[in-house]
Specification:
Chain A: GO terms for molecular function: mRNA 3'-UTR AU-rich region binding. The complex is a heterodimer of chains A (about 400) and B (about 1050). Chain A is of the alpha+beta class. Chain A contains twelve helices and 15 strands. The chains are: A alpha+beta (about 400), B alpha+beta (about 1050).
Chain lengths: ~400, ~1050
Amino acid sequence: MAAQRQASSASQTPHISPAELSYLYTSLSLPNAPIRPDGRSPTQFRPLTAETDVLPGTNGSARIGFADGTQAIVGVKAEVEKTASATDVRHLSEQHDEYGAGDGEQGEGDNSKAGQGSWVQMSIEIPGFRDDDALPVFLSEMMREPLVGSVADESGMEGGLKGRLVINKRWHWRLFIDVCLFLFKEIELGQVVLISFVMQVLLLSQPLSYPLPLLSLTTHLALLSTKLPKLKSQGEEDPFFDDDWDVAEYLYPRSRSARGVSQVRPPVTLLVISAGENIIFDPNREEIAVADAVLAISITRDSDGDGLKLLSIRTVDPPSRLTQPGVPNSDNVATLGSTAAAEEAEIVNPSTGEEEVSGVWRPRRGGVKRSTIAQMVKTVLKKGGVGEEVLEGLEGVEVG
Amino acid sequence: MKSLRRDLSANPQAENVTSKIFVRSTKSGKVQKIVRELYLRQDIPCSSKLCPICPSTAPVDANGNIAPFVLSDQPAGTKAFPRGHYLVPDTNALLNGMDLFEHTGAFYDVIILQTVLEELKNQSLPLYNRLLSLIKTDEKRFYLFFNEFRLETHVWRGPEESINDRNDRAVRTVARWYEDHLRGATRKGKKEKAVPAIVVITDDKDSIRKAKEENVTALSLSDYVSGLEDSDKLLDMITEARDARDVKGARGQLFYPEHYSMSKMMTGLRAGTLHQGVFSVSPYNYLEGSVNVAAFDKPLLILGRDNSNRSIAGDVVVVEVLPKDQWKSPSTKIVDEEAVTRNDNPDTEDNEVVVTEKERKALQEEVRRAHGSTGEGRPQPTARVVGIIKRNWRQYVGHVDSGSTGAQVTSGRRQQTVFVLPMDKKVPKIRVRTRQAADLLGQRILVTIDAWDRDSRYPTGHFLRSLGELETQGAETEALLLEYDVQYKPFPKVVLDCLPPEGHDWRVPASKENVGWKGRRDLRDLLICSIDPPGCQDIDDALHARQLPNGNFEVGVHIADVSHFVKPNNAMDLEASLRGTTVYLVDKRIDMLPKLLGTDLCSLKPYVERYAFSVLWEMTPNAEVVSADFTKSVIQSREAFSYEQAQLRIDDPSQNDDLTKSMRTLLHFSKILRQKRMDAGALNLASPEVRIETDNDEVGDPLTDVKTKAMLATNSLVEEFMLHANITVAAKIYSTFSQTALLRRHATPPPQNFEDLSNQLSKKRNMELDVSSSRALADSLDRCVDRKNPFFNTLVRILATRCMTSAEYFCAGAHAESEFRHYGLASPIYTHFTSPIRRYADLLVHRQLASAIGYEGEDGRAGLEGISTRSKLEDICRNINYRHRNAQFAGRASIEYYVGQALKARGEKMATTTGDTGIDEEGYVMRVFENGVVVFVPRFGIEGVVRLEDFVLPGEANIRAVEERRELAVHRETEFDSEEYTLLVREKGHADKQRAVTVELFQKVQVNVSSVKEEGRGAGKRRVRVLITGTEN
C-alpha cells in the first residue's frame, strides 16, 4: 500500500477487477450517453451539504459533506507578520513623513501592494496519510496556486488575495488554511460535538473519491467567511487593530451595488475526467479509476461579475495507468483452446492507439485529445454551464 | 446532515449559553480572535435589602453564608424621588463625575454594572481603581452587579449595533429589571414597602431619549445633581472637558500640535526614532523641562510650551529630537510662571497664544545665550514632545489666583472661570470653572486636571474640595500629605481587627511551654538598652555587649519583632505595604502600623518583656567578626536612653555599672567599625537638615525651635551597629533567596553627573573632584576645605549628594550581583532590617530572615508566603521606593513650612515694636542664574531664590516692602558670566561700582530672611524672602 501511495498522487485505485474496470469504462464511454454507476448525468454533482462558520475560534471556516459521508472541514487563521524585505526600518520611517504627500510615489506604492504567494499556507490532512506524503502536498499546492494566482484587479481587491494580505510596507497577514478531510458515517445520536469527529478521523478509511473538488469548494466557502480584524493604524505605522470582532472586515470584500451584494470570490477547482468522447464532472473514485484523462480546472468569476474566467488547468496523473490489465481470452493460457475469443472484433483504442479487445481492460496510457480539452473548458465556462452552476450553488450558501 | 455549528436552538439550556467574541492584540504583536463562552445564571442577587427573594437563591460560600446585601432598604430620597432611589450610572457618568460619586454628601446606594466597570477599566485605569475602592467600602453602599452573567440582564448585541449602544442598552435593561424585580419581590413579601426609584445616570442624550421610550428613569449627571442639596458645590465637581469641547466646537484655533497616534508612536519607538521617558520640569524655570530616555546618558532638554506640548511633570511622554540647529542650552534664568503670566485672563481664549509675548522674550534671550557662549552654555540636545503614553495626573493642591477671579467676584452664584495655582511650581496653572469663586479665595483647595486640549493654553480641571483657609495648620498639613500622596486616613476597621485582641494588656507569655516561645531564645538576662532621639515612642532597636569567657565579645542588636504581629497578606499587612513607611512631619507622625503595635506591643520599651529579632555577633577586641547568629528572642530592655543621656552616662566616670560598661564597649567597637567603613570608601554625605522641637512654650522666639542637627558620638554608635546588622542580614537573606531577597542598593553615579560641580569647583576654588570611585570621591571631598569658611565643605557635600542617584530597594534577581553595591556606604550588599515599625521593607526582610533561619512561627506555618514571588516583591519595591521618596519630601516640606511660619510669627511679634525687619543670617550662594541666585541658609536649612529686586545695593534706601522692592527690578541690570559663575547687579545708568554688587558661586553672603506676604495679584500667598544685604570675601 505504502509504495503504491508514493507512486502516484492520484493512486487511490479501488480494488476493482480488470473485468469490472472494463465494464465501467465501456458504460462511461458510451457515445453521447454515458451511464454512470450512480446514475447521474455527466455534469451532475453529487448532492452536498455546506455550512460556514463552524469553528468559532477561526477567522473563517466551512464544512462540506457529500452524501457518501466524505467530509471536509476548513479552518482559516490569520496572523500578523513582519515583511521580511522591509529591512531598513529607518529608511522607511523617513519616508513615512512624506506618506500621503502626493501621488508622486504611487508607482512605488503599487509595488508594495504586491504580496507574496508564500503568505498563504495550506495544509491538508487526510486520514491515513502523513502530512509529507505526496498526495496532501500535491493537493494543497494545486489549490493554493489558483488562490494566490487569481488577480481580480478592480472590485475592491487590488492585487488579488496576495494584495489583500498586505497591511503596509512592513507588515502583512499570513493566512493558514487548514483542511481536514474525513469520512463521517452519520451517527444518529442527536448531539454530536466536534470532538467525536476528531477522534473518528483516526479510525476512518481513505476518502471515497479523489478529494480535490470537495476540498476546493470547502476552502472557497471558508475563505468567503473569513474576516480580518479592522485596522486602526494608518500608513506605515505598526499595525494596530480594533478589538471589536463585529467590525472585522471580510477577507474577500463585499460591496453593495444596485444588483445586490456583489463580491470578489475565491476561485474553485473542479475535477473533470474524460472517458472516450465523454466528459464527466465530479467523478467518484471508481470513475476516476478508469478515466482516460483527469483534469483539475480552476475558474473564478470574471471581475465584472458576469462571465467566468479560466485560471488554470492541471492534468492529474490518471490512476487507470496503474491498474492491472485484463487478459483477453485469446491470450489466456487457461482458455487457449477457445477460438471464440480470437474471432472477437478488434477495436483500436483511440487514446492509446493500442489494440482494444472489447470487454478486456487495458490500462489507459494517458494522453487526451485537444478537442476533448476544449470541450471540457467550454462546458465549464459557457453561460449556464457547469462552472456557473457550481458557483451559483456556492453563492447560495449563506455566509457569515 | 447534522450541522457542526453549535446549535443552541434545540437545547433547552441554550438560552443561558452565549459567547463573547473579540480581538486581542498581544504585546508580541499577535492578533487573535478570542471566543469566550458565557454561561448565564439566575442566582446573582440584586443585593437590595428590600428583596425577600434573592437571599434565598444567592450563592453561598463554603460556610453556607451569602454575601451581605449592600443596597439599603431605606435609600435616601430627593425632591424628585421622595420614596428613595438607587442610582445606575453609565460609564460616561463615572468618567465625568467620579469625584461626585466619592463625595460623602450624596450618591449612596449605587449599582455599578460589570459592563460599566469593564468599560471604565479600558478608558481610565486610575478611575477604575478608585471605583473599585469605592465598591469595597461599606459606607457608600456601592454594589457591583454582574449583569452580564445574569440571564435576565444579559444583552445580546444586535446586528449593526455599536458596542456603545449595546452597553447603554445593557444599563437600561438592568434598570428596568431592577424595577420589575423589586416591585415583584416586595409585593410577594406582602410588606407594603415603597419601592425605590431606579435612576439611570447618563450623559448620553441619545440614551436618555431611548430611556424615555422604554419607560426607564434617566437623568444627566448635572440634572440629577441640580436636584440635590448643596448643588453648587457638587456641580463644580463634574468634569469640565467634555461639554466645553462641544460648545467651542469648530472654533478652530489650535494652540498645540496634535499628538501622534499610539501606533505611530509605537512604530517610532521600536524604530528608535522616538524616545520614551518621564517628563520633568526644572524647579527654577517652568518653561524648561527634561526627559531622561534610555538611549542617551544625559536627559534631553525640552524648552517652551510649544515643545512640551501639553505634558505635565510626571507624564510618560514620547519625544522626538529636534534638528541640531534648534538645539539650545539649558536656561540660566529663573522664570516663574506666576510672574510671567500674571495678566492672563482665564475666560477669554481668543487672543490667547501658546507662547505669550513675554514668554517668547524670555525664550529669545536664552537662544541668544546659547549661541554666544561656550562651555556650560553649550547647546544641548533638545527635543519636543510628540505624544503622551500615560498621563500621571493626580489631585493637585493649590489656591485660586485672586487676579483671575475678575470683577464679578461679588456677583453671586454665577459660574466663572478662574485659575488655580498649584502648590507644585512644576505644574501649570489649571483653569477651573466654579460657582463659588468668591468663597474659594484664600482657601487651600484640591483640584484635578480633566483634560488639556489643543485649543486651550492651560489644562482644564475641576474643583474637588476645600482643605481650609490658607496657612492654617490643618489645611497646610493636609495639603502636604495630599501633595506627597501620603495615606493619612485613620486605619479602617478591618486593619484594626488584625491587632491582638488583648490590646495594651498583651504580654509575653509567662510559660515557656506557650507556643509564643516556640523557636525563641530567652535573652531576658542580657543587659540590653535602647538609644533613640528624645521622646521616641516607637523604639525599633536595642543593643547590648558583653565579654565572653574566651576574651571575645558578644554584641547583639535586637530589633522589634513586628513580623510576629503582622501576618502576611492580612488587611494590616496590605495596608502597611501600601503606606510603605511612617511619615514624620514637624507636628505629626503618620504611622505605617496602628499605634498599638508601633508605640506599645512592638516597641522595645524598657523594663518590659518584648519579642525581638536578634542579631548576635562574636567579635574579637579589634571588632573582627568571628561569627554571626540570628534568632527570634525575648528580651527585656534595661533602659531607654536619649542620645544625650547615653552620652552623659558614658562620659560620667563615676558610673561603672555593667550597663554603662557595656555601652562603653559598644562605643569603642562602633568607632572601629566606622573607621573600617571610612577606609573602605564610605561617603560622609550631608543634607541640609534642621530639627524642630515643638514642645517649647510659646513665650520665646519661635525660631529657637529650629535647630540644626547635632551629631553626638552615641548617634554614630547606634548608626554603626544598625549598618552592621543590615549588612550581615543582607548577606544572610541573599544566600538563601538568591532571586527574591529584598535588598537596597545605591547605584554608582555616572561621572557626568558630577561634571557641573567639578567644573565649578576647579574654576572657583581650584579644587579637584575625583569621582573615579567612592573612596576617591570621599577623599577629594575631604580636601574641599576653605579655611576661612568652615561651612564650605558641608556645602560641597550637599551639592555632591544632589549629583548622586537615590538609593533604592530592589529584588536580588533584578540586578547582577556586582550591581548590589551601596555606593554611599561602600558596602557590597545592603538591606534594611532595623526599623520594621516604620518601614515596610524591614518587615519583609524580617520575614525572609525568619524563613532563612528556619523559624516556623507559632503555628509552624510562617513559610515563604509572600516573600518568594519575585513579581510581587518587585511591585512592593516600586511602591516602597516611591513612598520612601515622598515621605522624605513631605518631611522636608513640613520643616520648610514650619520655618516659614516661625519667621512669620516672629515678624508679627516684631511688627508691634520695631516693624518687621527680618532676621540677619549667613548664606551661601549655591547657584547663579542670569537674573538671580539661589542662596542656602544653613541656620534654617532653606534655599531661597534671590531675584534682582532682592539685592540690597550699597547706598540704597532701606526699603523692605515687597511691592516697593518689585519696582526696583526694572531699574536694574545685570552682567552674568556663565564661565566664572558671577553675577553683577547694578542700577541702570550707574556705571560705577558704587551702586553695584557682585556675587559669585560658593560665596558667603549676608542675608536677611523674612516671611513676606505677596501683595496685589498674587495676594494671599506667603513666601520666605531672602535679601542679600552684603557680601564678604
